[in-house]
Amino acid sequence: KLTSLALQPAITPELVRGRVRLKCSYSRPPPEPPVHFRVLWSRLSSPGKREQIHQETTLQPFSYVEMDGASLRLGDTVFCTVTAFRRGTPEQQSLPEDSKGFYAGIKFLPESLEIAEDGKEHVLTVLSTIPIACPGQEDSCKMTLQLSTEDLGKGSQVPGPPDISLSACQVDLLPGPCSGSSCAAATVTVTAVTDFAHDGNRVSRVSARPAAPRDVLWRAYTPRDVKVTVRDLPTGNCYSFTDPHIITFDGWRYDSHKIGTFLLCRSASRAFEVHVRQWDCGGHRSATACNCGVAAR
């Protein structure tokens, strides 16, 4: 009986003569008598709905389909469904077994980020699940992705400048052997912009677009964006005003009537400091100094 064979179909990408093919592999049952396999390829056309793109019957424990940019395109999630049967007794067939969905294209890992306005860098990996091919240009083969950011606002707020910054405006994906779910990968760091505004949590997105691809497979492809939620943090403030009254970051208040150039603030962790110059502004009546200059690094 062929009711339960545990065929365990799985999809892997391959590069054959400069063309990207997907291979569906499955376990071969005991050899006698010979078993045929019916392999159905499908892609996700809408959430929860599959569209058949290819079907074949074979004696081999694998089946191929080519990514031609028409019936099978970048951005598709692909499945293969395998059923085993004996020729002559088609009623003796196994239950159909599905592979996991294989997403063909560019992925961001993690698929979403939640970061804070604290200056920390967060690593974002950009990877291709299919091989990078450049027929005739193997020596300088790469896929360049242009990166951009966009603020999506918060609720009814009007989108403003992006709340995030990237360490690079583009990344290059270089050809190499596929390993796991990645055939090529690059990294970029994402940092939340400290905007000194109490504007609540905002959502931005990072987009990647292939830059001038020569391969027809990549020309009409727009990778999925990654959503980045920026958690608003309160910003510290310090002040020096009039004849100088000073309020420190932690709320202490005092006066400084001295004349001269002073160090007002210095960071203990980065190259940042503020100097202030105070001149006499009280004349003969009172010993009063006022701010007359400031220098910041």
From TrEMBL:
PROSITE patterns: VWFD
GO CC field: cell surface; extracellular region
Transmembrane helix as UniProt keyword: no
Cross-referenced PANTHER family: EGF-LIKE-DOMAIN, MULTIPLE 7, 8, VON WILLEBRAND FACTOR D AND EGF DOMAIN-CONTAINING PROTEIN
Organism: Prunella himalayana
Domain VWFD: 236-297
InterPro entries: Dev_Signal_Modulators, Ig_VWDE, VWF_type-D
Alphabetic keyword roster: Disulfide bond, Signal
GO molecular function annotations of the record: signaling receptor binding
Protein's recorded name: VWDE protein
